[in-house]
Amino acid sequence: MPKILISLATYNERENLPELTRQIFLMIPEADILVVDDSSPDGTADWVRERIKSESRLKLLQRPGKMGLGSAILAAMDYAETGGYDFFINLDADGSHPPRFLPAMLNKAKEGFDVVIGSRYVPGGKIRGWSLPRKMMSRTINFYARWVLGLKTRDNSGSFRCCRVALLRKWDRTAIIAAGYAFLEEMLFRLKKLGAAFAEIPIEFEERRSGQSKLNIREALSALLLILLIGTGLRK
Ligand SMILES: Nc1nc2c(ncn2[C@@H]2O[C@H](COP(=O)(O)OP(=O)(O)O)[C@@H](O)[C@H]2O)c(=O)[nH]1
Ligand SMILES: [Mg+2]
């Protein structure tokens, strides 16, 4: 039986975790869930610590301060390697990535794909709760990333992804440039260079109902710049 690690990067997601972790375990009972929390002021890590007492499949990695989404996913990837897992899946902890898509994602990976993207931009994919300008912004970023980084995949800016851990082992992640949101595009760029086989499965994305987005204009602009530097090879 393959070992599966599902990672959740959290910053102030205490309200969202009880229902989300319940749904994930319902969908993939054999999986472990790792919460990578950056000492959220709302006490997310306290909830996890309490829950772990009666749920051994739940794990916590607490870091001293907010270090960015990319760096949290990197830490979870290291955990997957060290822990001897076979498949690594990441999803946002705000409920935007419904766990009902996990089995399809995992099945696709088991078919032999190295990276499976939970995609809003393939037929059957949907976005609920976004305004037209927000949708246009995401489309533009994706178009830009495809062009600058030479990616063929459609959804390059979402974090709902499954990776074969054997592939992660081949990837020297010390050379990673982006610690924030641009990590998501950079990851695909690096894995493509390693010859990874990509697949996308449609998902229905839902905007978070509780809490706040951590993506602000400064983060977004810095992501655009980093993608350019990575794509042009100005930063190696
Ligand atoms: N550990 C950690 N998690 C983060 C950080 N920034 C964002 N996240 C988490 O990453 C996920 C996506 O962030 P979110 O704010 O929903 O971004 P958006 O969906 O692009 O608006 C959520 O689970 C956040 O809690 C961070 O600096 N550290
Ligand atoms: Mg979100």
What small molecules does the structure contain? guanosine-5'-diphosphate, magnesium ion
Shape-level CATH architecture: Alpha-Beta Complex
Compute the number of structural domains.
Answer: 1
Unreliable spans are: none
Q: Name the beta content range.
A: 15-25%
Q: Which CATH class?
A: Alpha Beta
Spatial strand sequence of the major β-sheet: 3-2-1-4-7-5-8
Seen as an oligomer or otherwise, the chain set is single chain
Indicate the percent of residues in helices.
25-40%
Distance between the first and last residues' Cα? 38 Å
Question: Would you summarize the structure shown here?
Answer:
With 236 residues, this protein is of the alpha/beta class. The protein has one domain: Spore Coat Polysaccharide Biosynthesis Protein SpsA, Chain A. It is built from eight helices and nine strands.
Brief descriptors of the model:
236 residues; alpha/beta; Spore Coat Polysaccharide Biosynthesis Protein SpsA, Chain A; seven-stranded mixed beta sheet; two-stranded parallel sheet; 8 helices; 40% helix; 19% strand; globular; binds guanosine-5'-diphosphate; binds magnesium ion
